[in-house]
Amino acid sequence: MQQAKYFCVADHQPSYFHHYALNVDHYTHFTSPIRRYPDVIVHRQLAAALGYGDRCDRDPEEIQNICIRCNETKQASKEASDESAILYFGVFIHSVGPMRCQAVVLGVLDLSFDVLVVEYGVVKRVYVDKMRREYNKQAESLTLFWPADANAESGNKDEFSTTIQMCSVISVLLSPYKEIEVSATMQRPTLEQRDILKSNLKEMMETGSKVLE
Fold first, then answer.
1. Does the structure show a pLDDT above 60 at 152?
2. Which tens digits make up the pLDDT trace of 185-207?
3. What pTM, to 2 d.p., does this model score?
4. Residue 119: C-alpha distances to residues 58, 64, 159, 176 (Å)
5. Is residue 170 a contact partner of residue 102, using CB atoms and an 8 Å limit?
6. For a tag on the chain, would you pick the N or C end, based on fewer CB atoms within 10 A?
7. Within a 10 A sphere around the Cβ of 11, how many other Cβ atoms?
8. Where do the domains of the chain lie, and which CATH numbers do they carry?
9. Of 141, 115, 147, 109, residue with least CA distance to 128
10. How many C-beta neighbours within 10 Å does residue 57 have?
11. Which one of 1-5, 143-147, 167-171 scores highest in mean pLDDT?
């Protein structure tokens, strides 16, 4: 979804005014002039239109240039916030060491899949390129084949397969990687984890903390 942007209405057709995410035909910011400069511009225009403020003497081109600058600043602020969160999370994992967490699969590729780590709200890519696997492009699923393991728990020693698809609930291991980066890996599931893997996002939300323990 494209991020909403500020613009001068004089420079655009009415069809451009629609706010997709909120599904409204006309939308602007004006409630927080103390922290958003676009809100100040709107307040000044409202004051002029209502007759208790000075008339706005800026032309549409100048207003549009202000909007462009506000969009650039807003995007830079978002990127700084996102990168800071990634940096802090990397420092956190390097400090506490490897952590096993529950995650929800967001997308499946032929050599990897993306997951949302529920507890921390971070998205990581899990690579399985060194495993025996079968990728179903049409179903957007990835079947992983786990070798037999004599050291595994009773009933889980033989070879088995698990299928990864959108909204699958899996267990991932978050580990320190390089300087402050974090890697996510999927290790051989236990019997309990195999049962969880069979659940989908709806079931996870219904069972809540039971699945996330």
1. yes
2. 998 888 887 877 766 555 655 65
3. 0.70
4. 48, 41, 30, 17
5. yes
6. N
7. 12
8. 9-93 (no CATH), 98-212 (2.40.50.140)
9. 109
10. 7
11. 143-147
